[in-house]
Amino acid sequence: MSRILSLAIADFKNVRRDSLTGNFLIIPFVLLLMIRWLVPVATNYLSSSWLRPSDIKDKPAFMKSLKEHNSPATERIWTYLDKDCKGIIEKWKPGEKLDKEQNKIIFDNLNRLIEMKGFYKEASFKEIKDDKQAQALLDKNVNNLNEDQTRRLNRLLFQSIFPKEIKKSLYFDLRPYYPVIVGYFFVLIAPLQMGTVAGFLLLDEKDDNILTALRVTPLPLAVYGIYRVSIVSFLSFLCVIVLIPLTGLVPNMSISLMIPAALSASLLGPVFALCIASFGGNKVEGFAIAKALGAFGVAPIVAFFVKSKWQLLFGIFPTYWPLKAFWSAEQGGWVYWVYSIIGILYLAILLVYLLDRFRKQIT
Q1: Which one, of 359, 360, 362, lies nearest residue 222 by Cα?
Q2: What is the residue extent of each domain of the chain?
Q3: Interhelix angle for 283-294 vs 268-279, to 10°?
Q4: What is the pLDDT of residues 86-120, one digit of tens each?
Q5: Is 160:134 a contact under the CB 8 Å cutoff?
């Protein structure tokens, strides 16, 4: 036990000294910060229904239509504008540019209508029936729409009123894909990084003949191998259990639901480590193998968009099962345990094979 502890302390010192391994260990936490900040920002941008000055393609025509308000739809908009906004529009003349404060007042008023629950009135928006997206929302009943759906409907109403003046908004809701994003980075990429760290440490020790020297010490190589596998497995497990709740993107996922996927993912790190160490003769070859293993992460993402039973064909890739278990756990039910057990068994078989191959290389 004391020898194992000494090895752990030596590994910690090596990580502090070696900038390569140190940076790899930092990557999961960098990913956490990026995901927590970038994903919500991207979601707000891609699914935003708010009107911005940059959304106006033809500002003079837009202002003219608001000023004249000679259609039922523009008249309805005019009804809800406040006194200051109406004053700016009435004083506006063709060719005149609005200053920053005037733009703010106008677009604050318009966006107040964008989030208004009762803005839609059938008599004012007869032409909206030609818009399939808007009609789909209207079929749900305006009173039953949530805030996001209400804003989306009202933005579509504005686009129907000003088809040549307002750009069509790029609307793509990322939220249904949060489990895919979180799972990819923390169930797959984080364990891969942990395994990469261990793989390069093993390559260093092999190059320096440290592993050969261990054969004449009281510490059996089998015990050393178990130590290496255990520490990487533990770190990979922690990446799933600790980092995923910190993202705040999958609130329905409790720790108990994550455990099966985490157990399966915890074996990915050791498999990656032993792939690098047993097939790589040096660090250059190790980098090439690590890059190739990274490509395995594409398969589960492709599989996510295959909705038929053919998706299971992607099970030939060991990276598929931990992610499948995670996605299934997020959706509910019990089948995620099946995917997790299959993943554990598959990865355990690979692990035994790679451990045996690595042992033969050393001996």
Answers
A1: 359
A2: 2-42+175-362, 48-161
A3: 140
A4: 999 999 998 888 899 999 999 999 999 999 988 88
A5: yes
